[in-house]
UniProtKB/TrEMBL annotation:
It is a multi-pass membrane protein. InterPro entries: MetI-like, MetI-like_sf. Signal peptide: none annotated. It comes from the Bacteria. PANTHER family: ABC TRANSPORTER PERMEASE PROTEIN MG189-RELATED-RELATED, SN-GLYCEROL-3-PHOSPHATE TRANSPORT SYSTEM PERMEASE PROTEIN UGPE. Keywords: Cell membrane, Membrane, Transmembrane, Transmembrane helix, Transport. This is Carbohydrate ABC transporter permease. PROSITE patterns: ABC_TM1 (PS50928).
């Protein structure tokens, strides 16, 4: 009886938290389909009387949102691919190779997670500017091609794999690269999927760095594009919400289809040190 009551309370708490989490998104979706007179009506309306699509048309005309979405996809996919490759290779070295200073080097890599990104942003900007990469995809992608978080996640998973597997592969004439590409990497698909979804969403939501290194619409990302929908002389909440919905939709779709890999990856392998 007590267990059933505990489960009911847990379900109620989860439902309440879920409603609190999704309510702002649903409200933004509703506002995006409302005409101005309905948005500012009293009492406030939560459901639009009809689908008012002019807000979306105005958002597309006010700023090149589609171009910004494409830019964000290119940057996010590039960073995600880079982080997966560098993290897997580095973690493989830390897990299966024995070399002098391995533990110290790993500690140094993990220690970089404690450095705030804002503290090195100016130096990164000066470096990128000296290479002539401003207003280009290179400035948005290359500084984020490696991540200590990814190295840590992959290493913790690789440590759960039996060492005997590596020794048996070596006896059968399989070199380290073949062992990684044909055995280890396919076995680590859940954690790779988790890292990929996490990296994609983090990159998609970046604001400060793209704002710093881009000044042209040809390279700006969606987070910068949303700010262009706010006009000091005229605040159109329907237009702004329509832009927000268009920006949120791709990331929500990615999360929905990738949540299984995200959960499996986060819950696998993180016990060995």
């Amino acid at each position: 009886m007590k267990k059933n009551i505990g489960k009911i309370i847990l379900y109620i708490v989860n439902i309440v938290l879920g409603i609190i989490t999704i309510a702002p998104i649903l409200y933004a979706l509703a506002i995006s389909f409302m005409p101005p007179d309905q948005i500012f009506s009293y009492p406030p309306k939560l459901i639009p009387k009809e689908l008012y699509l002019k807000n979306y048309l105005d958002a597309l005309n006010a700023a090149p949102i589609i171009k910004f979405i494409i830019n964000s996809f290119v940057v996010s996919l590039g960073v995600t691919a880079g982080v997966i490759i560098t993290s897997c290779l580095a973690a493989f070295s830390f897990s299966f190779f024995n070399f002098r200073g391995k533990k110290i080097l790993f500690v140094i890599v993990i220690a970089t997670m404690m450095i705030p990104a804002e503290s090195i942003m100016i130096s990164n900007y000066l470096t990128v500017g000296s290479f002539g990469w401003l207003d280009s995809y290179k400035a948005l992608v290359i500084p984020y091609l490696s991540a200590a978080m990814g190295v840590f996640m992959m290493r913790q998973y690789y440590l759960t794999l039996p060492k005997e597997l590596y020794e048996a592969a070596k006896i059968d004439g399989c070199n380290s690269f073949k062992f990684f590409t044909r055995i280890v990497f396919p076995m680590s698909r859940p954690i790779v999927g988790s890292l990929g979804v996490y990296t994609f969403l983090v990159t998609w939501n970046q604001y400060l760095w793209p704002l710093l290194v881009t000044s042209k619409d040809s390279t700006r990302t969606v987070q910068i594009g949303i700010s262009m929908l706010q006009f000091s002389e005229n605040q159109s909440f329907g237009l702004i919400m329509a832009g927000i919905v268009m920006v949120l939709l791709p990331s929500i779709i990615i999360f929905i289809f990738g949540q299984k890999q995200l959960i499996e990856g986060m819950t696998s392998g993180a016990v060995k040190g």
